């Protein structure tokens, strides 16, 4: 593949990033105006802004969303003979720096805060607590959407952290969830859905068979209706993993196995997803960049 820049949501230019508006329409009504989420005139243009070169999403200029921290994963790597420093401190510094730069006041963590399932290692428990204790000094509010790795997490995080169940929650016009469980109906009635879970990445393979994997953003349109929900968002934004040690699911692999019930073909038009690298490079629609990355079905985590 030969990726090119630009595209409908190019955010590689810091000056242009402010124009990245999703779910916006030409006519913007006031906050009290009423309209269907499928109306031709949509109220409130929501600014969902991927921050260049970071796995972080800025929402309406005040909310910073990140996903899949997997604090403690380095202990699992140590058991396999790979010694890597703890990542919690590095991630906390990155989030603090982004909050300062973009003046975000609310932090949303889209699940999988910790790594071990179902247990918690002693260091993992300590690192999780200190991570949130530190960030509570930066943000006015911190929300956590429970992920499939987050058993016992509620009993570890500081009480000031707003812990939400796996079906998700809503802030303003945006629904948030991890992505491993069916969201609440009220979450799916939001105008946009932001989730994690899949660690989206793009596979590149050259003529010599060498392959590389790079994290990416997915922006996936919903279908117009689904038997489970009376209302649906217009779009899902899948946030790449904040922890670089997590690896990623190569979304453009011919044999990709997406995780979670939301990737029901009757719900999401996944082939029509727009794919961006973290630096803002627009690669195209997912159906246009499929590649045989050489993975086997059993290579995908379940």
What features would you describe in this structure?
The protein is globular. It starts with 47 loop residues before the first strand and ends in a 17-residue tail after the last strand. Strands 7, 8, 9, 10, 11, 12, 13, 14 and 15 form a nine-stranded mixed sheet that branches. Strands 1-2-3-4-5-6 form a six-stranded mixed sheet, covered by helices on one side. It is α/β, with parallel strands linked by helices and 302 residues long. It is built from four helices and 15 strands. Helices cover 13% and strands 21% of the residues. It has a single domain (47-299), classed as Purple Acid Phosphatase, chain A, domain 2 (4-Layer Sandwich). Residues 1-44 have low confidence and may be disordered.
Write the layout of secondary structure elements.
Blueprint lengths: L47 E3 L6 E3 L3 E4 L6 H7 L8 H15 L3 E4 L12 H14 L5 E5 L16 E3 L4 E3 L2 E4 L7 H4 L3 E4 L4 E6 L5 E11 L13 E4 L10 E2 L23 E4 L4 E4 L17
Parallel strand pairs: 3-4, 4-5, 5-6, 8-9, 9-12, 10-13
Antiparallel strand pairs: 1-2, 2-3, 7-8, 10-11, 11-12, 11-14, 14-15
Chain-averaged pLDDT: 81
Please state roughly what percent of the residues sit in beta strands, choosing from under 5%, 5-15%, 15-25%, 25-35%, 35-45% or over 45%.
Answer: 15-25%
Reported for the largest beta sheet, the result is:
9 strands, mixed
Shape, per Cα inertia axes: globular
- CATH topology tier name: Purple Acid Phosphatase, chain A, domain 2
Low-confidence stretches: 1-44
Helix content: 10-25%
Q: Supply the CATH class.
A: Alpha Beta
Order of helices and strands: EEEHHEHEEEEHEEEEEEE
If you compute it from the alpha carbons, what radius of gyration comes out, rounded to the nearest whole angstrom? 19 Å
Straight-line distance between termini: 28 Å
**What's the assembly state of these chains?**
single chain
């Amino acid at each position: 593949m030969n990726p090119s820049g630009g595209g409908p949501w190019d955010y590689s230019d810091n000056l242009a990033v402010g124009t990245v508006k999703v779910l916006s329409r030409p006519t913007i009504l006031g906050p009290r105006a009423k309209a269907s989420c499928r109306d031709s005139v949509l109220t409130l243009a929501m600014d969902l802004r991927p921050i260049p070169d970071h796995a972080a999403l800025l929402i309406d200029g005040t909310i910073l969303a990140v996903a899949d921290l997997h604090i403690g994963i380095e202990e699992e790597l140590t058991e396999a003979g790979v010694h890597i420093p703890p990542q919690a401190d590095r991630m906390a510094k990155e989030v603090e720096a982004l909050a300062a730069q973009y003046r975000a006041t609310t932090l949303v963590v889209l699940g999988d805060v910790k790594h071990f399932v179902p247990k918690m290692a002693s260091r993992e428990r300590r690192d999780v607590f200190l991570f949130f204790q530190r960030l509570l000094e930066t943000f006015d509010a911190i929300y956590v959407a429970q992920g499939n790795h987050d058993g016992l997490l509620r009993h570890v995080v500081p009480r000031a952290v707003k812990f939400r169940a796996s079906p998700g929650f809503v802030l303003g016009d945006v629904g948030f969830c991890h992505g491993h469980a069916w969201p609440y109906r009220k979450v799916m009635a939001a105008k946009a859905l932001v989730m994690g879970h899949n660690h989206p990445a793009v596979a590149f393979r050259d003529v010599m068979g060498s392959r590389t994997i790079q994290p990416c953003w997915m922006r996936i349109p919903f279908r117009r209706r689904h038997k489970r929900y009376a209302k649906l968002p217009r779009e899902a934004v899948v946030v790449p993993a904040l922890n670089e040690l997590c690896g990623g699911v190569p979304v453009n692999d011919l044999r990709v196995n997406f995780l979670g019930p939301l990737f029901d073909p009757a719900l999401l038009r996944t082939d029509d997803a727009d794919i961006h690298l973290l630096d803002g490079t627009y690669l195209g629609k997912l159906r246009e960049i499929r590649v045989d990355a050489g993975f086997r079905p059993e290579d995908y985590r379940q």
